Amino acid sequence: MINPFLAGMNKRSTKDLKQVIAESQKYTAEAIEAALVVLKERQVEVDLPIVATQPLSEQKAVRKKKGFRFLRHYVRFILHPDVHAIEAGLIGKTMIALRFYAVSILLYLPLVYLLPLLAKIPGVSFPTSKPIFPGESLNQLDLIMFVMVMPPLVGLVEEFAFRLFLDRFNKKYAYISLSMICSYFIINTFAMLLYPDYFEGTGITGQLLFTFIMLGAFSAIIYIALSNSPTVTKFLENIWETDFKKVFYLSAIIFAVSHLRNYDWEPQSFILLPVVLFPYFNYAFLFSLLRIRLGIVYAISIHALVDLIAVLIFVSKMS
């Protein structure tokens, strides 16, 4: 089987490859193996990690004993985020994306068993989920259109806003994401505080489309302002080069916190804030991993799949 990391390692500088070997605890065995192959082709000698010096048969035996390879990769990525991409074909990347999605569900399972215990705590109540759309404005055609349009559109917008920039610094990607994040909070503030009934009389699909048209308009204005500021570009590039880890975690925090508006909060509910936020952080890390390792298309696709499942569950409960 072709090493999926080989093509990506070929694009790296010798200095970067030596760094991979030096920090082998942050990378999978396949990534280290690919780095060694490329360095050997370039006739560069390095001190090999312990795993790499073992006979191939022993390495395979170790890998068989160590299960949950994707789970370890997922956790390692969360603790030590980097911008290394996996090179593979369409089918290979699709299978990798689905496996990481399965890992995220696995991490969520303990919370499912914890929820009934938390519900028994005196004086504690779960925040109530807000409905996706008001029942009185529902008709069958509008509902079908919403189910078809909402998951891919929300997946596209949220991935561009919260994760498009998660790569080596690209000022266009950074400006697109920053402008969309700013627009996202401007529109939600407008909807919740200034004019809460401005959607009255429109269908749910119309509400969705109008919201994203407004998001695009505000984003374009902010993007133009940002792109004409060399100072901002230099500032952002410096952050990417020195504190990418902070950028990574900040994107996850903003994504998770932005979803708190999906609930009606009461004072006795705030103690459960970490429980409510956990799934959103889990998805933030999953989508970030897919965006960096496989590309933005795979992050959008899995995000759309997650939203589609959520919408279908909601609709099935209504019916």
TrEMBL record:
Enzyme class: hydrolase
GO biological-process terms attached to the record: proteolysis
Signal peptide (from-to): none
This protein's name: CPBP family glutamic-type intramembrane protease
Keyword Nucleotide-binding: no
Residue ranges occupied by any CAAX prenyl protease 2/Lysostaphin resistance protein A-like domain in the UniProt entry: 143-309
Pfam families found in the cross-reference section: Rce1-like
Keyword Iron: no
Organism this protein belongs to: Imperialibacter roseus
EC number(s) on file: 3.4.-.-
Molecular function GO labels: peptidase activity
Keywords (A to Z) from UniProt: Hydrolase, Membrane, Protease, Transmembrane, Transmembrane helix
TM region positions: 100-123, 143-166, 173-195, 207-226, 247-263, 269-289, 296-315
